[in-house]
Protein backbone atom coordinates (compact mmCIF):
# COMPACT_ATOMS: atom_id res chain seq x y z
CA UNK A 1 0.00 0.00 0.00
CA UNK A 2 1.48 3.30 -1.07
CA UNK A 3 2.69 5.70 1.60
CA UNK A 4 0.86 8.99 1.16
CA UNK A 5 0.96 10.70 4.56
CA UNK A 6 2.09 14.26 3.98
CA UNK A 7 3.46 16.93 6.28
CA UNK A 8 2.12 20.49 6.38
CA UNK A 9 4.52 22.45 4.21
CA UNK A 10 3.48 25.85 5.58
CA UNK A 11 4.69 24.90 9.06
CA UNK A 12 1.67 26.63 10.56
CA UNK A 13 2.55 25.53 14.07
CA UNK A 14 4.46 28.40 15.73
CA UNK A 15 4.80 30.31 12.48
CA UNK A 16 4.72 34.10 12.26
CA UNK A 17 1.40 34.48 10.46
CA UNK A 18 1.89 38.11 9.46
CA UNK A 19 5.27 37.34 7.86
CA UNK A 20 3.90 34.41 5.91
CA UNK A 21 0.88 36.44 4.80
CA UNK A 22 3.06 38.98 2.96
CA UNK A 23 4.13 36.25 0.59
CA UNK A 24 0.64 35.64 -0.79
CA UNK A 25 -1.89 37.75 -2.61
CA UNK A 26 -4.49 35.01 -2.47
CA UNK A 27 -4.97 31.52 -1.11
CA UNK A 28 -5.89 28.90 -3.74
CA UNK A 29 -6.68 25.24 -3.24
CA UNK A 30 -5.84 22.74 -5.97
CA UNK A 31 -8.81 20.56 -6.88
CA UNK A 32 -9.25 17.64 -9.26
CA UNK A 33 -12.42 16.59 -11.01
CA UNK A 34 -11.64 12.93 -10.29
CA UNK A 35 -11.53 13.48 -6.53
CA UNK A 36 -14.99 11.97 -6.28
CA UNK A 37 -13.73 8.44 -6.97
CA UNK A 38 -16.32 5.77 -6.30
CA UNK A 39 -15.36 3.87 -3.16
CA UNK A 40 -16.50 0.27 -3.50
CA UNK A 41 -14.29 -1.53 -0.95
CA UNK A 42 -17.02 -1.98 1.66
CA UNK A 43 -19.05 -3.93 -0.91
CA UNK A 44 -16.41 -6.68 -0.91
CA UNK A 45 -17.31 -7.89 2.59
CA UNK A 46 -20.32 -9.47 4.18
CA UNK A 47 -21.84 -8.45 7.50
CA UNK A 48 -19.66 -9.16 10.53
CA UNK A 49 -21.16 -11.82 12.78
CA UNK A 50 -18.44 -11.96 15.45
CA UNK A 51 -19.32 -8.80 17.33
CA UNK A 52 -16.80 -6.35 18.71
CA UNK A 53 -16.28 -7.69 22.23
CA UNK A 54 -12.53 -8.19 22.26
CA UNK A 55 -9.65 -8.99 19.95
CA UNK A 56 -9.80 -12.78 19.79
CA UNK A 57 -12.65 -14.90 18.47
CA UNK A 58 -12.65 -18.67 18.26
CA UNK A 59 -14.92 -19.92 15.46
CA UNK A 60 -16.04 -23.55 15.28
CA UNK A 61 -17.21 -25.02 11.97
CA UNK A 62 -19.15 -28.15 11.23
CA UNK A 63 -20.75 -29.60 8.12
CA UNK A 64 -24.19 -31.08 7.71
CA UNK A 65 -24.61 -34.82 8.11
CA UNK A 66 -22.43 -36.64 5.60
CA UNK A 67 -23.40 -39.02 2.83
CA UNK A 68 -26.69 -40.77 2.07
CA UNK A 69 -28.89 -43.28 3.81
CA UNK A 70 -27.54 -46.82 3.41
CA UNK A 71 -29.29 -49.26 1.06
CA UNK A 72 -29.49 -52.74 2.61
CA UNK A 73 -31.29 -56.06 1.95
CA UNK A 74 -34.78 -56.50 3.37
CA UNK A 75 -33.91 -57.72 6.85
CA UNK A 76 -36.20 -56.73 9.70
CA UNK A 77 -33.34 -56.42 12.16
CA UNK A 78 -30.92 -54.81 9.72
CA UNK A 79 -28.36 -52.46 11.26
CA UNK A 80 -27.77 -49.05 9.66
CA UNK A 81 -24.68 -46.85 10.03
CA UNK A 82 -24.74 -43.68 12.13
CA UNK A 83 -24.54 -40.38 10.21
CA UNK A 84 -21.38 -38.32 10.75
CA UNK A 85 -20.21 -34.77 10.23
CA UNK A 86 -16.81 -33.09 9.96
CA UNK A 87 -15.47 -30.19 12.02
CA UNK A 88 -12.77 -27.54 11.99
CA UNK A 89 -12.02 -24.31 13.85
CA UNK A 90 -10.05 -21.10 13.47
CA UNK A 91 -8.89 -18.29 15.72
CA UNK A 92 -9.53 -14.83 14.29
CA UNK A 93 -7.66 -11.95 15.86
CA UNK A 94 -6.34 -8.48 15.32
CA UNK A 95 -7.34 -5.14 13.90
CA UNK A 96 -5.72 -2.39 11.86
CA UNK A 97 -5.99 1.18 13.10
CA UNK A 98 -6.31 4.11 10.71
CA UNK A 99 -6.28 7.76 11.67
CA UNK A 100 -5.24 11.26 10.79
CA UNK A 101 -5.45 14.59 12.60
CA UNK A 102 -5.26 18.31 11.91
CA UNK A 103 -4.10 21.04 14.30
CA UNK A 104 -3.78 24.81 14.35
CA UNK A 105 -3.28 27.72 16.73
CA UNK A 106 -6.44 29.86 16.61
CA UNK A 107 -4.59 33.00 17.79
CA UNK A 108 -2.56 32.96 14.57
CA UNK A 109 -5.76 33.69 12.69
CA UNK A 110 -6.67 36.84 14.65
CA UNK A 111 -4.46 39.43 12.92
CA UNK A 112 -5.56 40.47 9.46
CA UNK A 113 -5.53 37.10 7.81
CA UNK A 114 -8.99 36.12 6.56
CA UNK A 115 -7.25 34.13 3.84
CA UNK A 116 -5.66 31.94 6.48
CA UNK A 117 -9.04 30.70 7.65
CA UNK A 118 -8.30 27.84 5.31
CA UNK A 119 -6.03 26.48 8.06
CA UNK A 120 -9.07 25.85 10.24
CA UNK A 121 -11.15 24.65 7.30
CA UNK A 122 -8.62 21.98 6.38
CA UNK A 123 -10.19 19.70 9.00
CA UNK A 124 -13.05 19.16 6.56
CA UNK A 125 -10.63 17.18 4.33
CA UNK A 126 -9.87 14.63 7.04
CA UNK A 127 -12.73 12.26 6.09
CA UNK A 128 -11.43 12.21 2.50
CA UNK A 129 -7.96 11.17 3.67
CA UNK A 130 -9.46 8.60 6.01
CA UNK A 131 -11.69 7.10 3.36
CA UNK A 132 -8.78 6.85 0.94
CA UNK A 133 -6.72 4.74 3.33
CA UNK A 134 -9.75 2.64 4.25
CA UNK A 135 -10.32 1.89 0.57
CA UNK A 136 -6.70 0.72 0.20
CA UNK A 137 -7.15 -1.45 3.28
CA UNK A 138 -10.39 -2.97 1.96
CA UNK A 139 -8.52 -4.15 -1.13
CA UNK A 140 -5.39 -5.33 0.66
CA UNK A 141 -6.89 -8.73 1.49
CA UNK A 142 -7.55 -9.28 -2.24
CA UNK A 143 -4.42 -7.62 -3.63
CA UNK A 144 -2.29 -9.76 -1.33
CA UNK A 145 -4.61 -12.75 -1.64
CA UNK A 146 -1.93 -15.15 -2.87
CA UNK A 147 0.09 -14.71 0.33
CA UNK A 148 -2.45 -13.76 3.02
CA UNK A 149 -3.66 -16.86 4.88
CA UNK A 150 -7.31 -17.12 5.87
CA UNK A 151 -9.91 -19.61 7.00
CA UNK A 152 -10.06 -22.92 8.79
CA UNK A 153 -7.54 -24.41 6.33
CA UNK A 154 -5.02 -21.57 6.97
CA UNK A 155 -4.28 -21.27 3.25
CA UNK A 156 -3.95 -18.16 1.08
CA UNK A 157 -7.17 -16.55 -0.08
CA UNK A 158 -6.21 -17.53 -3.64
CA UNK A 159 -4.54 -20.95 -3.93
CA UNK A 160 -2.76 -22.37 -6.97
CA UNK A 161 -3.63 -26.04 -6.43
CA UNK A 162 0.03 -26.98 -6.04
CA UNK A 163 1.61 -25.24 -3.07
CA UNK A 164 -1.80 -24.81 -1.43
CA UNK A 165 -5.14 -26.34 -2.33
CA UNK A 166 -8.82 -25.75 -1.78
CA UNK A 167 -10.15 -27.70 1.17
CA UNK A 168 -13.41 -28.90 2.67
CA UNK A 169 -14.10 -28.74 6.38
CA UNK A 170 -12.32 -31.69 7.99
CA UNK A 171 -11.43 -33.18 4.59
CA UNK A 172 -8.19 -31.52 3.39
CA UNK A 173 -7.39 -34.07 0.66
CA UNK A 174 -10.76 -34.03 -1.12
CA UNK A 175 -9.61 -31.94 -4.11
CA UNK A 176 -6.68 -32.53 -6.42
CA UNK A 177 -5.24 -31.07 -9.62
CA UNK A 178 -6.86 -28.04 -11.21
CA UNK A 179 -10.00 -28.61 -9.13
CA UNK A 180 -7.95 -27.69 -6.07
CA UNK A 181 -7.34 -24.10 -7.24
CA UNK A 182 -9.38 -20.90 -7.20
CA UNK A 183 -6.95 -19.16 -9.57
CA UNK A 184 -7.84 -19.21 -13.26
CA UNK A 185 -5.26 -18.15 -15.83
CA UNK A 186 -7.50 -15.96 -17.93
CA UNK A 187 -5.20 -14.05 -20.24
CA UNK A 188 -7.93 -11.58 -21.14
CA UNK A 189 -11.68 -11.08 -21.32
CA UNK A 190 -13.30 -13.57 -23.72
CA UNK A 191 -16.26 -15.93 -23.89
CA UNK A 192 -13.86 -18.79 -23.12
CA UNK A 193 -12.76 -17.01 -19.95
CA UNK A 194 -16.34 -16.32 -18.89
CA UNK A 195 -17.23 -19.98 -19.43
CA UNK A 196 -14.33 -21.10 -17.26
CA UNK A 197 -15.89 -19.03 -14.50
CA UNK A 198 -19.30 -20.56 -15.20
CA UNK A 199 -17.77 -24.05 -15.05
CA UNK A 200 -16.18 -23.30 -11.67
CA UNK A 201 -19.66 -22.53 -10.32
CA UNK A 202 -21.39 -25.40 -12.14
CA UNK A 203 -18.92 -27.92 -10.67
CA UNK A 204 -18.94 -26.49 -7.15
CA UNK A 205 -18.83 -28.98 -4.28
CA UNK A 206 -20.36 -27.98 -0.94
CA UNK A 207 -18.81 -28.72 2.45
CA UNK A 208 -20.68 -32.03 2.65
CA UNK A 209 -19.00 -33.19 -0.57
CA UNK A 210 -22.16 -32.90 -2.65
CA UNK A 211 -22.40 -31.27 -6.06
CA UNK A 212 -24.18 -27.96 -5.53
CA UNK A 213 -23.83 -25.46 -8.42
CA UNK A 214 -23.47 -21.77 -7.57
CA UNK A 215 -23.97 -18.75 -9.80
CA UNK A 216 -21.65 -15.78 -10.24
CA UNK A 217 -22.80 -12.86 -8.12
CA UNK A 218 -20.21 -10.12 -8.77
CA UNK A 219 -17.04 -9.33 -10.71
CA UNK A 220 -14.57 -6.67 -9.56
CA UNK A 221 -11.77 -5.17 -11.61
CA UNK A 222 -10.27 -2.07 -13.13
CA UNK A 223 -12.41 -0.03 -15.46
CA UNK A 224 -10.98 -1.23 -18.75
CA UNK A 225 -11.63 -4.89 -17.96
CA UNK A 226 -15.06 -4.33 -16.45
CA UNK A 227 -16.06 -2.34 -19.53
CA UNK A 228 -15.04 -5.34 -21.67
CA UNK A 229 -16.97 -7.77 -19.46
CA UNK A 230 -20.04 -5.56 -19.66
CA UNK A 231 -19.75 -5.42 -23.45
CA UNK A 232 -19.40 -9.20 -23.71
CA UNK A 233 -22.40 -9.84 -21.48
CA UNK A 234 -24.79 -7.31 -22.97
CA UNK A 235 -24.09 -7.69 -26.68
CA UNK A 236 -27.02 -9.20 -28.53
CA UNK A 237 -24.89 -11.67 -30.50
CA UNK A 238 -21.50 -13.35 -30.24
CA UNK A 239 -19.20 -10.34 -30.25
CA UNK A 240 -16.14 -12.44 -31.13
CA UNK A 241 -17.30 -13.48 -34.60
CA UNK A 242 -19.44 -10.47 -35.52
CA UNK A 243 -22.23 -12.75 -36.69
CA UNK A 244 -25.65 -11.33 -35.70
CA UNK A 245 -27.24 -14.76 -36.21
CA UNK A 246 -25.21 -16.37 -33.43
CA UNK A 247 -26.61 -15.78 -29.94
CA UNK A 248 -24.44 -14.44 -27.16
CA UNK A 249 -22.98 -17.54 -25.43
CA UNK A 250 -22.47 -15.63 -22.16
CA UNK A 251 -25.94 -14.11 -21.98
CA UNK A 252 -26.83 -16.15 -18.88
CA UNK A 253 -24.50 -13.90 -16.87
CA UNK A 254 -26.47 -10.74 -17.57
CA UNK A 255 -27.55 -9.04 -14.39
CA UNK A 256 -24.48 -9.86 -12.28
CA UNK A 257 -22.91 -6.93 -10.42
CA UNK A 258 -19.86 -5.31 -12.00
CA UNK A 259 -17.71 -3.10 -9.76
CA UNK A 260 -15.04 -0.76 -11.11
CA UNK A 261 -12.05 0.28 -9.05
CA UNK A 262 -8.54 1.56 -9.65
CA UNK A 263 -7.30 -0.06 -6.43
CA UNK A 264 -6.50 -3.42 -8.00
CA UNK A 265 -2.75 -4.02 -7.71
CA UNK A 266 -2.66 -5.96 -10.99
CA UNK A 267 -4.60 -3.95 -13.59
CA UNK A 268 -5.59 -6.96 -15.73
CA UNK A 269 -6.82 -9.19 -12.90
CA UNK A 270 -10.48 -9.78 -12.11
CA UNK A 271 -11.92 -11.04 -8.84
CA UNK A 272 -15.08 -13.11 -9.16
CA UNK A 273 -17.53 -13.68 -6.31
CA UNK A 274 -20.11 -16.48 -6.29
CA UNK A 275 -23.50 -16.46 -4.56
CA UNK A 276 -23.17 -16.81 -0.81
CA UNK A 277 -19.70 -15.25 -0.59
CA UNK A 278 -21.02 -12.73 1.97
CA UNK A 279 -21.28 -15.57 4.51
CA UNK A 280 -17.58 -16.34 4.13
CA UNK A 281 -15.64 -13.07 3.72
CA UNK A 282 -16.29 -10.37 6.28
CA UNK A 283 -15.15 -7.06 7.74
CA UNK A 284 -15.59 -6.00 11.35
CA UNK A 285 -15.33 -2.48 12.68
CA UNK A 286 -14.61 -1.83 16.32
CA UNK A 287 -15.31 1.75 15.32
CA UNK A 288 -15.30 3.43 11.95
CA UNK A 289 -14.86 7.13 11.22
CA UNK A 290 -14.83 8.12 14.90
CA UNK A 291 -14.25 11.89 15.13
CA UNK A 292 -12.77 13.76 18.09
CA UNK A 293 -12.01 17.43 18.65
CA UNK A 294 -10.12 18.83 21.62
CA UNK A 295 -7.93 21.68 22.82
CA UNK A 296 -4.50 21.69 24.35
CA UNK A 297 -2.53 24.50 25.97
CA UNK A 298 -3.70 27.97 26.98
CA UNK A 299 -3.46 31.62 25.93
CA UNK A 300 -1.23 32.00 22.86
CA UNK A 301 -0.34 28.33 23.10
CA UNK A 302 -3.95 27.13 22.75
CA UNK A 303 -4.10 24.60 19.95
CA UNK A 304 -7.17 23.02 18.31
CA UNK A 305 -7.04 19.38 17.26
CA UNK A 306 -9.46 17.51 15.01
CA UNK A 307 -8.98 13.79 14.50
CA UNK A 308 -10.73 10.97 12.65
CA UNK A 309 -9.94 7.28 13.08
CA UNK A 310 -11.17 3.75 12.42
CA UNK A 311 -10.32 0.32 13.76
CA UNK A 312 -11.00 -2.39 11.19
CA UNK A 313 -10.45 -6.12 10.90
CA UNK A 314 -10.94 -8.54 8.02
CA UNK A 315 -11.39 -12.29 8.00
CA UNK A 316 -12.55 -15.11 5.74
CA UNK A 317 -13.98 -18.43 6.87
CA UNK A 318 -13.24 -20.16 3.58
CA UNK A 319 -11.99 -19.11 0.14
CA UNK A 320 -14.02 -21.36 -2.16
CA UNK A 321 -16.62 -18.79 -3.28
CA UNK A 322 -14.10 -16.29 -4.61
CA UNK A 323 -11.90 -16.73 -7.70
CA UNK A 324 -8.90 -14.79 -8.97
CA UNK A 325 -8.93 -14.51 -12.74
CA UNK A 326 -5.30 -13.72 -13.44
CA UNK A 327 -4.86 -11.48 -16.45
CA UNK A 328 -1.79 -10.84 -18.57
CA UNK A 329 1.08 -9.42 -16.53
* Low-confidence sequence ranges: none
Oligomeric composition of the shown chains = single chain
What is the helix/strand order? Answer: HEEEHHEEEHEHEEEEEEE
Strand segment tally: 14
N- to C-terminal distance: 19 Å
Global shape: flat
Number of contiguous helices: 5
Radius of gyration: 27 Å
The residue-averaged pLDDT reads: 88
Helix content: 10-25%
Strand content: 25-35%
Biggest pleated-sheet summary:
5 strands, mixed
What does it look like?
The chain is of the alpha+beta class. The protein is built from five helices and 14 strands. The strands form five sheets. Strands 6-14-11-7-10 form a five-stranded mixed sheet, covered by helices on one side. Strands 3-13-12 form a three-stranded antiparallel sheet, with helices on one face. A two-stranded antiparallel ribbon has the order 1-2. The longest helix has 18 residues. The protein starts with 16 loop residues before the first helix and ends with a strand.
Amino acid sequence: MAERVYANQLRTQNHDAATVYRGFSRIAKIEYASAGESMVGEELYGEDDLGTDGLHHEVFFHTGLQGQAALRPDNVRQRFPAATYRTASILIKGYDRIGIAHEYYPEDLEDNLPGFEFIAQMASDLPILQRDTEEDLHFRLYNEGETTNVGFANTPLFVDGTNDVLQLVGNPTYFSGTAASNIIEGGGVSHAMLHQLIQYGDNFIDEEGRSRPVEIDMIVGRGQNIDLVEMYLNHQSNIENFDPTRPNPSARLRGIRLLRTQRMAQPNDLIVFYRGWQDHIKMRAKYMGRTDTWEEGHAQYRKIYTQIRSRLGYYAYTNRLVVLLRGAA
